[in-house]
Design a protein that fits this description.
Number of helices: 7
Strand order of the largest sheet: 3-2-1-4
Domain PHA accumulation regulator DNA-binding N-terminal: 7-66
Distance between the termini: 61 Å
Largest sheet: 4 strands, mixed
Oligomer: single chain
Helix content: 55-70%
InterPro entries: PHA_DNA-bd_N, PHA_reg_PhaR, PHB_accumulat
Radius of gyration: 24 Å
Protein name: Polyhydroxyalkanoate synthesis repressor PhaR
Shape: flat
Number of domains: 2
Domain PHB accumulation regulatory: 71-110, 123-162
Pfam families: PHB_acc, PHB_acc_N
Length: 189
């Protein structure tokens, strides 16, 4: 049984209409739906085109222009450089998997926090800073594990690409190219 997406219609006047509540909402309300893990779909009211990605990117842009941006200049320029490159198709799944791993890391940290402090609403940013100082070695271990998993995923992705390239181009004779198995056999003879 699949859960239907909550449909938000965007009108030419840029207003967003939540079909579930039959009311106009703001971009901030859409952000809150995402934070509340509501599966949404934004459609152009006139053309019925799915414009969810562009609305989500608009939310990210507003967040980036706010107080503490998540993406550095270098990260943004690297994203732009990947467009049109051979690795572009692999970048999305790689980032998606890394975000999943990072979410798991965050859940572990939250579980540790809850184990130490319970559901104490007083646990604010200052206490979080103290917790991070106290849990330094454990945090480093968790981050190291995350980085190892991330590196492993990248290596797996690279190996899959090599295998796909071998299957795709294996039947073609390229001048100067010697297949690894063929080169090994020639050296033995």
């Amino acid at each position: 049984m699949s859960v239907e997406k909550r449909v938000i219609k965007k009108y030419p006047n840029r207003r967003l209409y939540d079909t579930a509540t039959s009311s106009y909402i703001t971009l901030g309300d859409v952000k809150q739906l995402v934070l509340d893990s509501v599966d949404i779909q934004v459609v152009d009211a006139k053309t019925q085109e799915d414009i969810t990605r562009s609305v989500l990117l608009q939310i990210i842009l507003e967040e980036e222009n706010g107080g503490m941006p998540m993406f550095s200049h270098e990260v943004l320029t690297q994203f732009i450089r990947y467009y049109g490159q051979a690795m572009q198709g692999m970048m999305g799944p790689f980032l998606e998997k890394n975000l999943q791993l990072f979410s798991q890391l965050q859940e572990k940290m939250q579980a540790q926090t809850k184990a130490m402090y319970g559901d104490n609403p007083v646990f604010n940013a200052n206490l979080w800073g103290e917790f991070m100082k106290f849990q330094g070695p454990a945090m480093q271990s968790m981050m190291s594990s995350y980085m190892e998993q991330s590196s492993g995923m990248f290596m797996d992705m690279q190996n899959r690409m090599q295998e796909q390239a071998k299957q795709l181009f294996g039947g073609f004779n390229f001048p100067g190219y010697v297949a690894p198995e063929q080169g090994k056999q020639e050296k033995e003879n």
